[in-house]
Amino acid sequence: MTNTLTDTPTPAARAAALTRRDFPAGFVFGVATSSYQIEGAAHEDGRSPSIWDVFCAQPGRISDGSSGAVACDHYHRWEQDLDLIAALGVDAYRFSVAWPRVVPTGRGPVNPAGLDFYERLTDGLLARGVQPHVTLYHWDLPATLQDQGGWTNRDTAYAFAEYSAAVAERLGNRVASYATLNEPWCSSVLSYEIGEHAPGTRDRAAALSAAHHLLLGHGLAMPEIRRHAPQSQAGIVLNLGPQESASDRPEDILAARQADGRFNRWFLDPLLRGEYPADTWADVGADAPPVQDGDLELIRVPNDFLGVNYYSRGVIGAQGGVLPEGASVTDMGWEIHPQGLTDLMLRLKADYPALPPIYITENGAAFADERSGDRVHDPRRTEFLSTHLSALLQATQAGVDVRGYFAWSLMDNFEWAHGYQKRFGLVYVDYATQERLLKDSALWYQAFLK
Ligand code: FCB
């Protein structure tokens, strides 16, 4: 007798049975971090302030009043942290380089001591058999450049290309992949329109100008990376997610389509098609960005990979985003929806003929973890990771070319406007002592990778 209920594995059962051998040969598994969120050492070895140092000093910007001045003290504890990464058994580590360490004036002389740190990190990873994956811009713009308008100033795109060249020249082919930008939606819309991230501006025209100059910076930096590191992979990281209509009502369907335009297509279309989406361009009217002749040719530069950060989907009604009834959410209030990752991958493949191979460069969840003795029991994070990996596997089996997956994050860290109150780590950080402790989810990942 067959029982369809038990014969059809539930998503959770499928996820629990998962092993790394289910994935294509050579599939890369890693963990990710970013410079400002973990490094600390804000004033050392010639680092200048970034826009996040300035932003954190403004009252009311960060919910717990904290900053990244010390963070996980990774700048001093990097060797121990690399040992931890190696002990997890991952193939790869994604980290970012702090522009204010490398070019403290934003544009001008290179600070060799800043590059020394990332060279030690790169060589330390290689010595441990872990591939280095570098992100050049994970939001810590030198504050001196913000004084000249930040990303609303076209010159910042050229400054970024020069800084990128300096990093690629020093680290060269030792790095497995260079991503120019992390999540330009966040460093434009969230930063210049919504004002939740540095520099905290609230101006849509400024945000769209920033987004254009970020994309231009990507286009200008890519040839510099290729020139100095011809054997490394080069590409960009976007935060993407399905934007689904809350109902069949035409006004909800329209709102979802508009949200998709602003969140996904505004970045995907220029990069992969060489044009801004016409419907969204019409929606933004006079706030449209200052595009010069030739910009879109530069932006449409071929990429070796597209990095995708996936956390959740949007469910959109005419009045804005809604949480579906019965949805389970993380400590960020984000809906847990692994199916969205499969849907997103299939959609990218269907809609973008020029789509390069994909790496999931971030995926993870914040939960209010508590330490009990030397253990941190975080079953919901393990379930989050395994169900998303399972959803990703379904997309690869349906023919999407996905080459790797990085969990966000290696360890608990400074979660931007939420300070230290949101824990995304597989490794728990006791901020009073800087002790690191593998959560149950880290032990699960370790076992999965064995
Ligand atoms: C992403 C960021 C990353 C981290 C996660 C939770 O948007 O790239 O730095 O904050 O969200």
What are the key terms here?
450 residues, alpha/beta, TIM Barrel, eight-stranded parallel β-barrel, 17 helices, 15 strands, 15% strand, binds beta-D-fucopyranose, Glyco_hydro_1
Short overview:
The protein is of the alpha/beta class. Helices cover 42% and strands 15% of the residues.
**How much strand content do the residues show?**
15-25%
Low-confidence stretches: none
Helix content: 40-55%
Number of extended strands? 15
Cα radius of gyration in angstroms:
21 Å
**pLDDT averaged over residues:** 97
Chain-wise SSE layout:
Blueprint: H1 4-7, H2 11-16, E1 28-32, H3 35-38, H4 51-56, H5 74-88, E2 92-96, H6 99-102, H7 112-127, E3 131-137, H8 143-146, H9 155-171, E4 177-182, H10 184-193, H11 204-228, E5 233-239, E6 243-245, H12 250-273, H13 278-284, H14 295-299, E7 305-309, E8 314-317, E9 320-321, H15 339-351, E10 358-362, E11 371-372, E12 375-376, H16 379-397, E13 402-408, E14 427-430, E15 435-438, H17 440-449
Parallel strand pairs: 1-2, 1-13, 2-3, 3-4, 4-5, 5-7, 6-8, 7-10, 10-13
Antiparallel strand pairs: 8-9, 11-12, 14-15
Helix pairs in contact: 5-7, 9-11, 10-11, 15-16, 16-17
Bound molecules: beta-D-fucopyranose.
The site of beta-D-fucopyranose has 12 residues, from loops.
